[in-house]
Design brief:
mainly alpha, menaquinone biosynthesis
């Protein structure tokens, strides 16, 4: 695989695509729905995810977190496949593209989208870098929940509708938990090396046993949320029923995560991202036909 394809971590991109797909599909029935805005919002989300991935690769190497002891997937900076300067420049380029695309979205959504865009850019840069890296202070999972859950779903729906709904908030929360689970797998795998490097992720703080228990909640709670949304009359039955099929994958992953540790968690990382995409795609198909 080409080094830059490794660097952008293709298997993590569903974390950005899934919530934006759902947010836009929620607005599909609206008269003012725009496919152009939908595509732009998903493009912006993917570019921001790539920026986060490159920033994580660059800053973890720069801060001495990624070393030869690393057991996670290959990092292009630490391995020497791409120079640190090139990865940094790639991060800046991707962020600039995201900001450029986001400019069109701000014109569409006005000041609320401008505020969300500013917060998202700051969150992207501060995830691994800056004076208080979120990932190094146990806030990575919370950042994933907020930006790749609530902000992505509610923000993309607002772009289409000019308002928010309880449905968007419920689905933003559900998908946010899935994306937090992705982050938790990554951090649980790296407990030993992160502890040695002084990177105090949530998994480091609570320990592997508690992290495994937390993962169970993160992949099951989304199903409880959408069922509750249906019972309360906020969500339609067909999307909830179809999304429920993803419970099969969630169950399989919860068992695999509880039984494995260290490097053996690498496949579960990508599969948890697929869980996010499966849930989002199934719910979106249900919305299209409901």
């Amino acid at each position: 695989m080409h080094p830059w394809l490794i660097a952008i971590r293709l298997r993590t991109l569903p974390a950005a695509i899934g919530p934006l797909l759902v947010g836009n599909m929620l607005a599909l029935e609206l008269a003012q729905f725009s496919w152009f805005i939908a595509i732009l919002s998903m493009l912006c989300g993917v570019l921001l995810q790539i920026t986060v991935n490159l920033a994580n690769d660059y800053f973890d190497f720069k801060n001495g977190i990624d070393t030869e002891e690393r057991i996670g997937p290959l990092r292009v900076t630490q391995s020497g496949m791409i120079s640190p300067i090139s990865v940094r420049n790639g991060m800046i380029f991707s962020l600039c593209l995201a900001v450029a695309v986001g400019g069109f979205l701000i014109i569409q959504g006005g000041w609320p989208i401008a505020l969300l865009a500013l917060a998202t850019v700051l969150g992207t840069l501060c995830y691994s870098g800056g004076p208080y890296p979120l990932a190094s202070h146990g806030l990575g999972e919370i950042a994933a929940f907020v930006f790749f859950g609530l902000v992505a779903v509610v923000g993309s729906y607002y772009l289409q509708a000019g308002e928010t709904t309880s449905s968007a908030w419920l689905l933003g929360s559900a998908i946010g938990f899935f994306n937090a689970a992705i982050m938790l797998v990554n951090n649980t795998r790296d407990i030993r090396t992160d502890t040695k490097a002084g990177k105090n992720t949530l998994a480091v703080r609570i320990g592997e046993v508690q992290a495994k228990s937390l993962y169970q909640g993160l992949v099951y709670i989304p199903f409880a949320i959408v069922i509750a949304g249906f019972l309360l009359g906020n969500l339609k039955g067909l999307p909830v029923l179809l999304a429920g099929l993803a419970l099969i994958l969630a169950r399989r992953l919860s068992i695999a995560f509880s039984e494995n540790t260290g490097e053996a968690l690498n496949p579960i990382l990508g599969q948890t991202a697929k869980l996010t995409m499966a849930f989002s795609a199934l719910f979106s198909i249900g919305l299209a036909f409901a």
